[in-house]
Amino acid sequence: MNSNTPSSSAGGIGSADTTGARRNSKRPKYSRFTQQELPACKPILTPKWVISAFLLVSIVFIPIGVVSLYASRDVVEIVHRYDTDCIPADARNDKVGFIQSPRVKTCNRTLRVPKYMKKPIYIYYQLDNFYQNHRRYVKSRSDQQLRKTGSENDTSACKPEDNNGMTIVPCGLVAWSLFNDTYNFTRNNQLLAINKRGISWKSDRDHKFGKDVYPKNFQNSTLIGGAHLDPLKPLSEQEDLIVWMRTAALPTFRKLYGKIETDLQAGDFINVTLENNYNTYSFDGKKKLVLSTTSWLGGKNDFLGKAYLTVGGLCFFLATWRSIIFVMESESRSLNKLLTDILVNAFLGTT
Amino acid sequence: MDLNLNSQFESGNSPLPDFIRNSSSQRSTSSIQSIYSKTSGGHAVREVGFELGSKPSVRHGSRGADSERFSSSYKEINDQDARLVYINDPEKTNGKFEFARNSIRTGKYSILTFLPRNLFEQFHRVAYIYFLAIAILNQLPQLAVFGRGASILPLAIVLFVTAVKDAYEDFRRHRSDKIENNRLAWVFVNDQFQQKKWKDLRVGEIIKVSANESLPSDMVLLSTSDTTGVAYIQTTNLDGESNLKTRYAKQETQMKNPEKEKISGLIKCEKPNRNIYGFQANMEIDGKRVSLGPSNIILRGCELKNTNWALGIAVYAGRETKAMLNNSGAPSKRSRLETKMNQEIIYLSIFLVILCTIVSVCHGVWLRLHKDDLVLMQFYRKKDYSKPKVKDYNYYGWGMEIFFVFLMSVIVFQIMIPISLYISMELVRVGQAYFMIRDDRMLDEASNSRFQCRALNINEDLGQIKYVFSDKTGTLTENKMEFHCASIGGVDYSGGKALAEDEQTGYLARVDGQVFRPKMKVKVDPELLSLSKQKQTDEGRHVHDFFIALAACNTIVPLTVETSDPALKLIDYQGESPDEQALVYAAAAYGFMLIERTSGHIVIDIQGEKQRYNVLGLHEFDSDRKRMSVILGCPDNTFKVFVKGADTTMFSVIDQSLNSNVVKATEDHLHFYSSKGLRTLVVGMRDLSASEFEQWQSSYEKASTALMGRASLLRKVAYNIENSLSILGASAIEDKLQQGVPEAIESLRNAGIKVWVLTGDKQETAISIGHSSKLLTSKMTQIVVNNISKESCKKSLEDALLMCKKLTIASDATGGGSGSRMTEIALTIDGTSLVHILDTELEEQLFEVASKCTVVLCCRVAPLQKAGIVALMKNRANEMTLAIGDGANDVSMIQMADVGIGISGQEGRQAVMASDFAMGQFRFLVPLLLVHGHWNYQRMSYMILYNFYRNSVFVLVLFWYTLFTSFTLTTAITDWSSMLYSVIYTSFPTIVVGILDKDLSRTTLLRYPQLYGTGQRQESYNAKLFWVTILDTLWQSIAAFFVPLIAYWGSDVDGSSIGDLWTIAVVIMVNLHLAMDVFRWYWITHAAIWGSIVATFICVMVIDALPSLPGYWAFFHIAGTELFWACLLGITIAALVPRFVVKILIQYFGPDDIQIAREAEKVENSRESRDAEIEMNPIFHPPRR
């Protein structure tokens, strides 16, 4: 930020004191620390430092802004909302009734690929207005139970989904509400393979969800919250559950559903066969299907690039403004002279 | 004049609000009385008397606020209030009810009681109660926001650290108690003296103490090795006074020896109390009833000196001894900054309530809007279906939910009230105190006394002082009295000063082959010296009487000190008044050497001839009479009364008709002396006829043996004998100014501090000291107010006010702003006028006049008036006041002022004990205020603002998130991080900066005292700055919260990851904010700031490495993405740019003094280094200092 000359005002006084110490034994040995004269750097915001600081910020920020804006623009994203469209026309008056009914909920949609999409293409489902960060919800889980069979009964936090006569594994609202829409993609009547392995964090699979913990009594109470789990697969392999259990930070969120390991060409039509099972209708939640490529900065989001450009630009403007003033000042008189004048006014005038 | 003053005091109308009177009289009742001795020029006689046997217990200056309190002590002690001590019969004494044993316990705790008691004491602080209440709230299942461990951790840490500190201190106290209790004393048991541990000593036992031993308990003297029953004691441990004091055994017991005959008797004494200068009892022995006073008791902690042994009976033991009862801490004051801060904390509390209300109301609205959906919402699930009977799950109805959310939000947002600030402030003050104590520039090398911080919570007040009230004697001056000159018989002997060459050694006295010499040499006037050797002339006789008076009329005890030369002995005059010491040394120098003093007689060596005078009676100094007298039986069998005292009261008892020329001349001389700043005393005498003497003696004996109203009876006797005196002369004693006082006062004045001097001295003396200390300059217009009635006071105040206004207008007319320099006004006011002004409607006028004056001198003021003046300015001007003094008479003023400073000097330690800070010299006030005060104020102000900001920014980030969780107070930031935030993540840098940062160097601050004005104008902490800080906080929290929010909106980020981002972003931002404001970077500052950031990263990593927490490994995932780092950088810069820009704008458009001085410092440094190089090259440059 500014000057870096280590200086100390200990100089004269300090040396006088040390000689004094020799003469007079009463006076303690001079110590820079106790006399608060440790060497220090005293930065001062001189115009040069201010201008350089602003320039530095703008030099760093503007390129980053440009690069991230480009990165964001490079990301190809297909977002398709299907929650209303997948309700048969006759049931649209009572969506909740429809979703709770045992009717067939398969639904076919077609997506058009606007631009070339390079593999891997990530399939997300996006929920809006779903408060996965609601206090009642986030607390209703047992991390102990997920890890070890021994802690199976550690369900005190899981209410109201802790047991229904028998202990539920995995317990709690989070697991209970597991998302259960499914998607299948075909392109030109060819099935597009969805890779559902490795969509969750490796750390979660290895350490958080036990390899010997199997689902028990799951989703067998009166109210079904969402998906069922294969009781023969250990939790560490239930990747959809693992992804779901990483509760989202915000009420609008995406969860990784799988990956398509083929490139998609611009203009391709993709048919989606989806099972519209999940009830978001009771709280006006939206459901969207998202296909997206990725960049070094993540998904499509212009915000960061714009923010960087704004800050960088602002700093550049400030640097210019300060330089103009500085140049104008230097023309009329030197800085030292100015300072002396101010000092004289301040200290002699007012006393 | 004085009578007016008295009546004012006696009527109980002391010019002090009640609470001070109570507090000061509680703490140092005695101090207030003894003051009067000093105020009128050195008759400090406190508890010494020379009557044989029955010594009256005269209380000096026992008037004013204390008179009522103590009037009881003259009454007969009635049996209910009395403590009965049977001499040498501890069984019977302790039979009825047990008196305290002699073991003492200063330790507060035992092993068993430590935990409960220590916790109890710790929870006396409001801050901890708040902590605790929040932690308890959090334990309710409905409100459990944080994990149990996390919510208790911070409180636990603080409690634990404090408990360890307390335990250590208590351990040390226990250890010293143990040593003290196991000391041995000789106690009379089973008809012989045996050694007994102190703790086993009981009331009623006879104790034998040998020379240089400490007293194990308070004991009444029975007999001493001295045949007259005198014992000398030193009370250093009790009140710090190192001179010897005398105590007496009663004649009735002096001759008794318990080993030969059985002593039995009964002492009836007061209940234990903390007045160390008072004791009231009577003793029944051998059928006689004898009264006992303060001169018959020796207190625990005193040391016996110059006496081979002393026998006494223990009357108070252990915790009931006066020394232990007086063991109380320093007064606690609250700094002005802290008071202001508490105001802003109220704003913050309101802010907190608003936040909580918003959250709970929104939550209510949300519930209302979704009330039909709640059952089916996967993330709410209102009903519990697990039981056959379906019930609401954790839902208590709309209203209760709102209430719970409100309480929960209080828990989540708790650190909005910066509780950790109180703890940090304490730590910072300890650090600042350390540096003040260690400052070599405030080390008094003469007495080797360091600066002392007795109060730890008003460091920052030192930077805002507007008024300094200073005592004169001992504070501005050294209080080392030197006899300067004298006026004897109307002739002024102040001519020659030099010691004659051959007289270099001073006066010597030869007695039995031993040579005695006074310890201190005094310069003599050769003319007077030669006169003093003549006996025949009139003048010679006058001089003779004068010096006899000086040598005899006092309470000085001569002590002989061995020297290396066995034939030579030094005489050291010990006494309580430095003035008396100076006078006796002077008399000795002129050949009137006081050699011996016992209770019945004195021996004076007059020009080589030993003369014995019987001391028949002594009327001690008291503040009504302001004089003392001694009745001597001379060797020629005549009786004489010698009186010495203050001129105001002496001239009224001097027979003016006797020799009016002399009186007139003396008065002129007195005036001349005091104008030179000398302290004057008038000496008079009278020959007593045999009948007069007898009459006096009978009434004196009657008075001194009276059991009731002894003091007033004795005073009456004194009034009768002290009249129609013939004047002998007057003495002048010089009290030198302390080193560096004029310069210090100049600096303080330049710093915009108004210096007032409050003194007991005469007006002329005060004014002359004012001139010599540069307090008054010739350019000033002086206004003097000394009136004897209320009306005239009113009039002179009105005149003064008019004059002030006229002068101000005149100066405005002549030369605008700089013209005000020309018309400085000095006000001199005396104590008599103050009697009429303080506590009346005239106060307002005095205040108006005084606030227009640059200098105010108050002379002849009583101690309580000093406090009254301080209170006047403190309450009306609403400015910070500082009182500085050294004597007991300054105690009330020191306690009254916002900051009290004691000078640890000649006059004992009472001022120091009452003070907040203590130091060796007046001039240290300059570095203390201008340097340390400035630094402390600036540091503390910044720290408070910064802590407000630091906590609010975090709370706001939590609050913003609440808006996106349907107002349910989920925190993305982990519990542990929220708790560690103010404990580990951000606390160290602010403490380090609060202790170490310096905006300006010492040299600059001393060179430009005007820089002190920043503190007086409250530039570093005020409402404007507070609100600006809050605005800045708002912006920074928005930047820190919304950048990640928008950047991650609609992505698959999970709560823990983004929480980690917020945690780290806030911590970095907050630490860089501090870094931006640091003035001086030491390596410690670097370590603290960068260390904190690193520590935060480590803590976050550790928390995320626990698989049992939901956020397992989140940090490692998110830190692997570029977006995380891009957000971090963006947040930091975007958050801090506005602050940086405002800083630059202020610096450019409206720089403050500090900014200018900093730049000047920088320019100067670079110029100096350049100059140094040039100078160094041609010749070797000798060091300037």
UniProtKB/TrEMBL annotation, chain A:
Belongs to the CDC50/LEM3 family. The keyword Zinc does not apply. It comes from Olea europaea subsp. europaea. Residues 1-22 have a biased composition (Polar residues). Pfam families: CDC50. The chain crosses the membrane at residues 49-71, 307-328. Keywords: Membrane, Transmembrane, Transmembrane helix. This is ALA-interacting subunit. It is a multi-pass membrane protein. Residues 141-151 have a biased composition (Basic and acidic residues).
Automatic annotation (TrEMBL), chain B:
GO terms for molecular function: ATP binding; ATP hydrolysis activity; flippase activity; magnesium ion binding. Residues 912-1151 form the P-type ATPase C-terminal domain. Residues 85-151 form the P-type ATPase N-terminal domain. Residues 1-33 are annotated as: Disordered. It catalyses: ATP + H2O + phospholipidSide 1 = ADP + phosphate + phospholipidSide 2. It holds the Pfam family PhoLip_ATPase_C. Its EC number is 7.6.2.1. It is a multi-pass membrane protein. Belongs to the cation transport ATPase (P-type) (TC 3.A.3) family. Type IV subfamily. Its cofactor is Mg(2+). GO terms for cellular component: endoplasmic reticulum; plasma membrane. This is Phospholipid-transporting ATPase. Keywords: ATP-binding, Magnesium, Membrane, Metal-binding, Nucleotide-binding, Translocase, Transmembrane, Transmembrane helix.
